[in-house]
């Protein structure tokens, strides 16, 4: 895998999700999953997130919708934080999740709102 692509992806990943998350993901305790982390960094965070066709706010809104639809609460939590870092406000996060509740189902929407409330509460304590 191309180290430049990995490094570019890691920079973008840190800008969106925070340096602490990247350091934890790539830390010594993650040796087993390092190949996956490098794949995600190179392809997801570099090849996709660094494309010029959509801005980061839009990519974040899309991710919130997809992660809600896929019922991935841990990733949703990370990407709610990323969406805020990318300039979405809480009202915009709320609107994305409301739309998801209609199109993905009320249980998915309820879970997504729970994750959002928990995430907002944690961020307020930090």
TrEMBL record:
SUPFAM superfamilies: AhpD-like (SSF69118). GO terms for molecular function: peroxiredoxin activity. Gene3D superfamilies: AhpD-like. It comes from the Bacteria. Residues 37-118 form the Carboxymuconolactone decarboxylase-like domain. This is 4-carboxymuconolactone decarboxylase. It comes from Ramlibacter agri.
